[in-house]
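Q: Here's a chain of 239 amino acids. Please give me its 3D structure as C-alpha cells.
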Amino acid sequence: MKKLIPFVVFLLVLSACDNEVKPLEFKTNTISTAFEADISVAYDEAIHSNDLSKAINKSIETAILHTVNSADKETDIDAVLKHFNDEYLKFVQEYPEAAEPIWELNIESELTYQSPEIITIAISAYEFKGGAHGNDQVKLLNLDAKTGNTLEINDIINDVEGFKKLAEAKFLKSIEKDKNNLTMESFFFGEPFKLPENIGFSEEGLILLYNVYEVASYDLGYTEFMIPFEDAEAFLKVH
C-alpha cells in the first residue's frame, strides 16, 4: 500500500496544476479596412472564446468608445471608423479646397500590467480634423482579472484621501526635477492638488497620468508620474 502513495501524491499535484488559473493571453487586433481618411487601429484583445475573455473584450471596446471623441453615438469600433470617414468625405465634398491635410484617427493600446487580480491596458486615441493640432486622449483601463469588469479607484485604493496625500508628495518630488521651475500652481491653475482620472498599474508601480488640458498648458502635453509598489502597497486593495 505504501508504494501507491507517491503515485497518488503525483496525481494530486498534477490535478492542482491543471486547476490553476492561467493568465489570459492577448493578441493585437488590427483593423485594416481602407478608408479615405487616415485611419489606423490596433488594440489588445483576449484570444479565448470563454465568458471571461468576452467580458474583457467588451470592457476594452467600451473604453475605446469613451476615449474617441467622435464615438458619442456609436456602439462599436467599426461604426466609429465608418462615421469618422463619412464625416471626412462630407467635409471634403463641402470644402474641397480644405481637403488637405487629411483627417486622422489613430487608436492603439498596450497591456501594461497583468496579475491574477488585475489587468491594466493603456488605450490611446488621436483625432485630427484640421486646425493647429489634433486631440489626444489616453485611458488607463483597469480590469478585474477574474470577471472582466472595469475597476474604479475605490475598487483599487482602500484609503483615497491617504493615497492622495502620498500622490501629492510624489508629484511635488517629480516636478522638482523639471528645468522649467514649474510649481503646483502652474499645473492646477491655483487650485489644490487633485488626483488624475487615469491611475493604472505597471510592472514597477502605479502610473498617474493627466491628459492634455487636464492640468497645465497644452504645450506641456501629458503629465505623468509613478508611485513605486513599495510606497503604494498599504493603500492597495488589489495588486
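Q: Can you summarize the key feature?
A: The two ends are 45 Å apart (CA to CA).
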